[in-house]
Design goal:
- Helix content is about 70%, strand content about 5%.
- It contains 11 helices and 3 strands, in the order αβααββαααααααα.
- The chain has a 3-stranded antiparallel sheet with strand order 1-3-2.
- The chain starts with 12 loop residues before the first helix and ends in an 8-residue tail after the last helix.
- It holds the Pfam family GntR.
- InterPro entries: GntR_C, TF_FadR/GntR_C, Tscrpt_reg_HTH_GntR, WH-like_DNA-bd_sf, WH_DNA-bd_sf.
C-alpha cells in the first residue's frame, strides 16, 4: 500500500518524488515488475507531470525502472549481476575510506558512530526495519564524513539502489539486523583502535555478506529477479 507523503517547498519537487518512489521500490512496497504511471503518480502527489517525468529519469539512471516504448515505465526486476557489480564498486570505495578513517577519525567522529550503533540496536529491538536501514546507511556515511569525504558516500549511494532491494529482503530472512550490528561494531572497534588492516578486513567481511545472501533470496522471490 502506498504511503502518504507531503511535498514541501524545501527542495525541488522532482527530488522529493524521486526519493519517495525510490524508498517504496527499495522496500518492495512497489514490487519489481510493477507499472508506474506518470498520470497516477502526478495525481498522488498533486503535482504536474513534469517533475514526475524527471523523477522517473533519475530512477532509470539508478537502475530501478526501465522505460519500454509504447508500453510504459516499469520497476526493474532485480539483477543479480547488477547487485554483484555494485557491491564490487562499493567495496573498493568503502575499504579505502575505512582505512583512512582508522588513521584520521576524531573522538567526535567516533562518538557519532557509537551513538549510531546504539540507535541501530534500539531499532532492531523495535523491529523497525526501515529505521534500521536508514541508520545502517548513516553509519557508512558517518565513516566517510569522518575523513571529510562526503563525496565517497554520495558515490556509493548512487550505485547501491539495486543492492538496497536485496538488503531489505535479507533483513527478515537471511541477515537479521543483530548480525549486521555485530559486523558494524567490529568495524567501529577497528577504527577506534586505529588498526587500518583490521578495519579493512571487517568492512570487507561486512560487504561480502550480500554474496552469500543473494542466492537464497532470489530462490525465495524468483518472480522478482531477472532470469538468465
Amino acid at each position: 500500500m502506498s504511503i502518504a507523503y507531503t511535498i514541501t517547498a524545501s527542495e525541488p519537487v522532482n527530488q522529493q518524488i524521486y526519493r519517495y518512489l525510490r524508498q517504496e521500490i527499495v522496500t518492495c512496497i512497489i514490487p519489481p515488475g510493477s507499472l508506474l504511471s506518470e498520470k497516477e503518480v502526478s495525481a498522488r502527489f498533486d503535482v504536474s507531470r513534469q517533475p514526475v517525468r524527471e523523477a522517473f529519469i533519475k530512477l532509470a539512471e539508478a537502475g530501478l525502472v526501465q522505460v519500454l516504448p509504447q508500453r510504459g515505465t516499469f520497476v526493474r526486476k532485480i539483477s543479480a549481476r547488477r547487485v554483484a557489480d555494485g557491491r564490487f564498486i562499493r567495496e573498493a570505495v568503502e575499504i579505502a575510506v575505512v582505512r583512512r578513517a582508522a588513521l584520521e577519525a576524531t573522538p567526535v567522529a567516533l562518538l557519532a558512530l557509537q551513538q549510531n550503533l546504539d540507535l541501530q540496536a534500539l531499532a532492531a529491538q523495535r523491529n523497525d526495519i526501515q529505521g534500521f536501514l536508514a541508520l545502517d546507511d548513516a553509519f557508512h556515511r558517518l565513516i566517510a564524513e569522518s575523513i571529510d569525504c562526503a563525496l565517497a558516500w554520495e558515490t556509493v549511494e548512487n550505485i547501491k539502489a539495486t543492492m538496497d532491494r536485496v538488503r531489505f529482503l535479507t533483513l527478515s530472512k537471511v541477515s537479521p539486523p543483530e548480525s549486521l550490528i555485530e559486523q558494524h561494531r567490529e568495524i567501529y572497534a577497528a577504527v577506534a583502535a586505529q588498526d587500518a588492516d583490521a578495519a579493512e578486513l571487517a568492512m570487507r567481511r561486512h560487504l561480502q555478506e550480500m554474496i552469500f545472501s543473494i542466492t537464497p533470496i532470489s530462490e525465495q522471490n524468483s518472480e522478482w529477479f531477472e532470469q538468465h
